[in-house]
Design brief:
With 139 residues, the chain is α+β, with helices and mostly antiparallel strands. The chain has one domain: Alpha-D-Glucose-1,6-Bisphosphate, Chain A, domain 4 (2-Layer Sandwich). The chain is built from three helices and ten strands; from the N terminus they run E-E-E-E-H-H-E-E-E-E-E-E-H. Strands 1, 2, 3, 4, 5, 6, 7, 8, 9 and 10 form a ten-stranded antiparallel sheet that branches. Helix 1 crosses helix 2. It is globular and about 40 Å long.
Length: 139
């Protein structure tokens, strides 16, 4: 599968690894907007609802409670404002968003989802990232 590209961003080849019953998905998503714009889509209940899933609870701090509808409840296991948001939820595994600046008006999202058993697919996340790119638009 090749990357999805467009004027508003690109999703590079996803990778999938399996170690026993643990699965790890990685994506690199290039976004033509500032880290600050992307951060709100990854680290606020309102932002997550537009492209991923509603967050019924999201405490903006390390160790804070998080409940992602249709995914599960758990804790914020990494939090570096404007850079890293990681949510570990029971039944949904560890979902990590790591942002990097890519020039003055662009960002790179390094994404990891680690989970056990049956769960998300590479195509499922690719579809979500296409929605994220669409929601953010250029700028």
């Amino acid at each position: 599968m090749t990357g999805t590209a467009g004027a508003s961003g690109s999703i590079e080849q996803g990778t999938s690894q399996t170690h026993g019953n643990t699965h790890i998905l990685h994506f690199l998503v290039r976004l033509p907007c500032s880290m600050e714009s992307v951060w709100s889509a990854l680290a606020t209940a309102e932002g997550l609802a537009t492209w991923f899933t509603p967050a019924d609870e999201l405490e903006h701090r390390l160790g804070g409670a998080v409940t992602l509808r249709d995914v599960g409840s758990g804790r914020v296991t990494a939090w570096d404002v404007d850079r890293v948001a990681e949510y570990t939820v029971e039944g949904g595994g560890r979902i990590r968003f790591h942002l990097e600046r890519a020039g003055a008006r662009a960002s790179v999202l390094r994404f990891t989802h680690e989970f056990e058993g049956e769960g998300e697919t590479e195509q499922g996340w690719r579809t979500r990232f296409e929605r994220l790119i669409e929601e953010l638009g250029p700028g």
